[in-house]
Every structure is written in C-alpha cells, then in structure tokens.
Amino acid sequence: MSDAHETAGTPREHHTSQDKSLAVQAAMLDSADELAALRDLFALHDDSVYLDGNSLGALPRHVPERVQDVITRQWGELRIRSWTEGGWWTAPERIGDRIAPLVGAGPGQIVVGDSTSVNVFKAVVGAVRLLDPAEPARDEILVDATTFPTDGYIARSAARMTGLPIVPVDPEKLLGALGPRTAVVLVNHVDFRTGRLHDLPGITAAVHEAGALAVWDLCHSAGALPVGLDAQGVDLAVGCTYKYLNGGPGSPAFLYVAERHQARFDSPLPGWNAHTDPFAMSPDFTAADGAVRGRVGTPDILSMLALEAALDVWEGVSLAAVREKSLALTDFFLECVEAYAPPGRVRSLTPAAHAERGSQIALRCAEAPAVMAALIARGIVGDLRRPDVLRFGFTPLYTRFADAERAARALGEVLTEVPAED
Amino acid sequence: MSDAHETAGTPREHHTSQDKSLAVQAAMLDSADELAALRDLFALHDDSVYLDGNSLGALPRHVPERVQDVITRQWGELRIRSWTEGGWWTAPERIGDRIAPLVGAGPGQIVVGDSTSVNVFKAVVGAVRLLDPAEPARDEILVDATTFPTDGYIARSAARMTGLPIVPVDPEKLLGALGPRTAVVLVNHVDFRTGRLHDLPGITAAVHEAGALAVWDLCHSAGALPVGLDAQGVDLAVGCTYKYLNGGPGSPAFLYVAERHQARFDSPLPGWNAHTDPFAMSPDFTAADGAVRGRVGTPDILSMLALEAALDVWEGVSLAAVREKSLALTDFFLECVEAYAPPGRVRSLTPAAHAERGSQIALRCAEAPAVMAALIARGIVGDLRRPDVLRFGFTPLYTRFADAERAARALGEVLTEVPAED
C-alpha cells in the first residue's frame, strides 16, 4: 500500500492471523510511542475510536474547569473588570503568541479572533493592498481550485471588492500558472478532502520569485505538522483552532501577518479593536501597530479562553515527534486497511509519499455514505465527504495505533456487510 | 432635574433627611416593581452596585451549568455528532429567532454570529448592493457622526470597497441631510456616550421617503426598550448581545435583514455557512434563502450557546414593562443625583425627555476619571468614557431603585472628596 493507491485486498481466510499480528504490532507501536501519555489529557473513552479530530478536536480534560472559572468568577463576579484585570482585552494577541511556535512564527505576528472565513477575507484583501501600486498589471488572484469551499467563496468576494479577477488553479499545476500577472496566491497547506500536503516551501518560493504574495490556509496543518511560516517567508496565513489545536466547537481562527508586512497591512475590517487607542473612541481610525491590526470587534471571550486553556496540552510537545507519529499512524492505518478491506472496495486518495501527506487518510468508496453510517454505529467515528469519500483524521496527541487497527478492522467488517454497488 | 440638564444641587445640610426620604422612596419603588423578582435570576451580590450592564450584562445564574453541559457532554462526549444531533449547526438562526421578539422582528430575519463590527460591514455593503442600479446618482452613505467609533470605521471601509463616499451627519441634523444622493443611512438607536435615543420610526420613514435604506445599530437598545424593527419597516439592523441581552463577554452579535430584502441580500462575506447546501462542498457559491444568508463561517458554539441559555431570562417578560422601569430608574437616579451631588459638579448629557432617552445616564464631570475610580473602589460600578463622561447603565431586569439611590449617594460623597478642577 505504501506505493500504490489501490488497496490490493487479501483473501478473507487469512484475516484471523493477520488480525492478531496487526493487533500485536499496534500494541508494540503504542508502547514505544513517546507521545502516548498525552492521550490521558483528553476526555476519550475506549468505547469508541475518534478519528474526526480533523473536524473537531477532542476535549482536553482540564478545559471545563477553566471555562467554569471564566464564567462564574471572571464574568459572574469580576464582570467588567475582567476586561483589564483578567486579561480579556489582550487575549487575541496573547493566544496568538501561544499558537505562534506551533506554526513556526515568532511572537507578535498572530492574532486570534473571528472565523476562518472572515480571516481569509482580511488576508486576501490585505495581500492585494500590499501590492506595489506601480505594478497595476499584476492583477490576478490565484486560488487553489481544490480548496475547502469557503476560501474560494470569500476569495471571490475579495476579488470582486478589489477589482481583481480570480483564477482557480489546481495546486499541482500552480507553479506553471504563476506569471507577471499573478498578484496573490491563496493555497491550502493540506487539502481537506484528500489529505494531500502541498509544498509550502516550494510554492512560497516560486510565488515570491514571480513577484507575488503567498497566503496560506493552515486549517488542516496547524497542530498536525511543522509549518515554518517565518522560515519559509510566508506572507499571510489563516488557520483554524478547533481541529488539531482542540480549541472547541467553532473556536476562533487566527491570522498571521508577517512582521515585514505589518506596517502596510490595511485591513478591510478595521474595527475598533484594531485601533491604536480604542478607548479614545475617536471618530478617526488610526491602525494599531503589529498583529493587533488584524483584530476587528470585541473578542468572544468564552470561546477564546477555552482555546487558551486547550493549548496547555502542547507544553513540551515536539512538533517533529507529532509529525513522526502522524506519518506512522497513517502508514499503519493504510497497512491495516490493505489487510482487512475486501479487494477493490476502497482506494486511498491520500498520497502515499510522506512529503505529500497531511494527517488524515481519505478513502474513496462507492458506498461511502452507508459505510460511514455503519462505522459510526460501531463507534468508529470518521466523517463523510459527499459523495464518496471516507475521511479518517489522525491526531497524534491522542490517537493510538490500536485505534487505527481497530478502525481498519471495523471497516473491513462493514465492507463485507454493505454490498458493493454494481 | 426632569427638565434641565444642569443639576441644581442642594445644600449639604439637607442631605440626611433627603437620604432617608430617597432611600424610603427607593424601597417603595422596589416593592412595587413587577420585574423585581427577575434579579434573583442573576449572579449579583449586595456588596456592590452594578451599573455597567450597558457594557457587559451580568451573568444569569443558570448559564454556567448549561455551558458545562455544552463542554463536557456535547463537546466532550458527543463531539462531532453535536453539530447535527445537538443542534449546533442551526444555532445562529435558532438564537436569532429567540432575539427576534425582543426587537420586534418576526421569525426568519435574524442570525447570530460574528462581532458587531463584522455585521456592520455585511449590513452596509449589503444595503449598498440592494440599491437600484438604475439610480447611480444615489451615491452617499450617511453615517451617524456621534456613532460608537467602530461603526464609522467599518462604514468607511464598506464605502471605500463599494466606491461610495461617507458623509458623517449628526443624527439631530439627519433629516435635513437626506436627499436624492442618499443611498444608505447608518444610525445608532441609542448613542453609546450620551444615552440619547434617536427617533427610529421618524428617521426610518424619512430615509424611505428620500428613497434610501436605513441600517440601525441596536447595540444600546436591544433588550433595553422596544425597537419595532418590522413595524417601522427597518431595512437592516445589527446589534450586540452582551449588553442588555446578557450573553456574556464578547458573545456574538446579530444581523437583521428584513424579509423583503433577503432574496437580493448579497453578503460581502459569503462564507460556506451561507451556502444553500454547505456540505455539498461545491466550488460555486449559491446563497441560502432567508436569514441564513447572513452567516459566514463556523459559529463559535461556546459563546453562542451561553447566549442562548442567557436568553431564558426573558421568558414572559414584557418589553413595555422593561421600558417603563428603565425610565423610572433613570428618572429616579437623576432625582437622587440632583439631591446628593454638590452643585455644578455634574451635568447630565442624557436627554430629560423620555422619548429621547435610552437606558443609561451619562454625566459630564470634569474630574470623571478620578470620580469613577473612587466610585468603583466603593463598589459602585459604572464606567468612564474619556475624557469627562461618567456612564451609568440601568438594566431593568436586575437593577433596583435602591441601587440607583445608593449609587447617587456614593457619587455625592465622592464628589465632596475629589476636589473640583479649577
């Protein structure tokens, strides 16, 4: 399976011994896993296998108590004083600095707040406004044609409002599409559907060589693998905090504006939180310096401080170890799927090459809706991407090799029960 | 004080008997207050007087338990299933429908999500795009010159991105400024600084007569007084939920798009949540029908469901009773201030006429920073609007007449201690 997308399948009669050997192998891998102890930090039970952390990360066990303090003491007792004394006001940039090392950014370049969609709008319009006005011929926004759709929708709105056209481009063909008309390029680091990891260093360098700016969407890579924003010279980036960063349902997204661009970053959403002196309540807008310029309105404190608490699980965790385990988990899952799944029923859409793989496995399966429903009924929680993709996310902080084996085994069983479509 | 802005002041030697009579009067008013029992629904203690609910509403007592369930059970156990089974996905429009009756809107016209600033952007750009393209001469956006600053900043960005100029106009002079060039008018229902209530019915009618669209900011009126969005024919509106709606720090704002405009409402932030079939993950955007079209990205569930819980306190509450108590409270506070404050030290910026008054009292005071600090040290929590405004918010659901009397008495004491500036 390591070099082929098609699962070869194996005769059913071999399953019993294979089950045992793969289960034994899983146990060995788990016992050698240096991140294994982190699982205890999360509210997870052995009655199910949660492989949907790429949609909603699991709850870190200590978060409820922290949020309770935010609500009962900070809101309930201190009330308005918490904005200053409780650190509410500075939460967006403080939490941004907590996320920064996880995506390879130095301090002062990330703010947390708003949804990913809103941040894509800030980033794309902001990037267009960073362009040299002496180069009006540079007028195209290239957008990942396989993007999670909201990026495309929002980029199109940003393009419409800045007067530039959108050019959808498959990331595989992006390098060939770059040219003297390229203004801004918006790409996903990891494809939400296939789990394909795009070449952030190579694409960013090529974009710069073409004289354009690179905006990266890190929704499916932040917390799953090293990103290296500063080292690779990324211009702007957005990301999600409720997937591999476990911030909670709909927790606020983040915006990265590289330090060298901050002084000229001109947000299309210059709310009062981006003002250099918000409480002056001046009718004139004077943008704050630094990452704060990316803020808009009053931050949603409950969601934001739940995220801040959730980030504690990263204390002392090496992203290199996370990446190593992620690849080992997805390799092992593919191996198990190859062993357990009836031949020809599923086909991996996720690249076999490590350099091209994020932290999920997407399997194409004609009967995907029925199969995923049956898996969930058995406690194996992945998700469906219509019409025919089974998606399994592997969060190295809490997913065990035993979970991968159990999920693949259940998939094999379900596939024998759900008849193949003609 | 009822007809004059200047507090007349009274000789100090009368204070003792006045204190008693006003304290007695407060007790009588409280015992006759039909909303008095609602205070028990909130986490408030008698060691302080909280008059900052127009900045951050107090915590309803039952909210912590509800949020705990959202975190530990819905997120911690059900995890991704809560998006469908737990009603997370439909929360923005469901909670919008809970807010609707509080602002005089029928169902299906309000969605909750994003900050007020982001919603101002949607509303102003959306309003411009609703204009008849056959009337290109209608090209001015009139903006309340005394607005809470973020509305002005964002309106200017919306104007820049739609190519229309902004014209700041004092709401008092708005009717005279309307004309054939007026495209959109953005006004605050209640002025954040002075507490002045603007004439929503009259201004809306005049805006329509001029052929333009009216966008109202309800931040300081939603939950404080009847608004009548549908009855007055308001076109679009935005509002805040963490002031008089007690949704919690930074809880999401709301957007109202009148039903008659929804089919043509063209959001500048068309995120995937506004798509007619978001999980089709289509590269092409097709806007959802109805209020959902005002959504953008994934909603911040913790903040949103805390707000939903907080709205329970409105069960069976009459907004007419809320308004009546609000006016009685502010009248009484002004009467107490007149009785207790040394002559000439404070002057009310809030109109005496009920028809022009929101639910706060703003007192101009040369020594405002020192005075507010001293008040807060005594447990009387209002807030300062730099440089010289003392702001006291009166939330009829939980503020007592005794609180108003106690706050005014403390203000009188503080003013005798803080020397008047020359």
Would you write up a description of this structure?
The structure is a homodimer of 422-residue chains. With 422 residues, the first copy, chain A, is α/β, with parallel strands linked by helices. Chain A has 2 domains: 12-61 and 318-417, Aspartate Aminotransferase, domain 1; 89-298, Type I PLP-dependent aspartate aminotransferase-like (Major domain) (Aspartate Aminotransferase, domain 2). Chain A is built from 12 helices and 13 strands. Chain A has a 7-stranded mixed β-sheet with strand order 2-8-7-6-5-3-4, sandwiched between helices. Chain A has a 4-stranded antiparallel β-sheet with strand order 9-10-13-12. In chain A, strands 1-11 form a two-stranded parallel sheet. The two termini of chain A are 25 Å apart. At the A-B interface, α2, α4, α5 and α9 of A face α2, α4, α5 and α10 of B.
Entry keywords:
homodimer, Aspartate Aminotransferase, domain 2, Aspartate Aminotransferase, domain 1, 35% helix, 4-stranded antiparallel beta sheet, 2 domains, globular, 422 residues, disordered N terminus, 7-stranded mixed beta sheet, alpha/beta
Give me the CATH fold name of the largest domain in chain A. Aspartate Aminotransferase, domain 2
Overall pLDDT confidence of chain A: 94
The radius of gyration over CA of chain A amounts to: 23 Å
The helix-strand sequence of chain A is HEHHEHEHEHEHEEEHHHEEHEEEH
How does CATH name the architecture of the largest domain in chain A? 3-Layer(aba) Sandwich
Q: How many β strands of chain A by DSSP?
A: 13
User: How many separate helices of chain A?
Assistant: 12
Domain module count of chain A: 2
Greatest interface by residues involved: A-B, 79 and 78 residues
DSSP helix fraction of chain A: 25-40%
Sheet/helix structural class of chain A: alpha/beta
Full CATH superfamily name of the largest domain in chain A? Type I PLP-dependent aspartate aminotransferase-like (Major domain)
Biggest sheet architecture of chain A: 7 strands, mixed
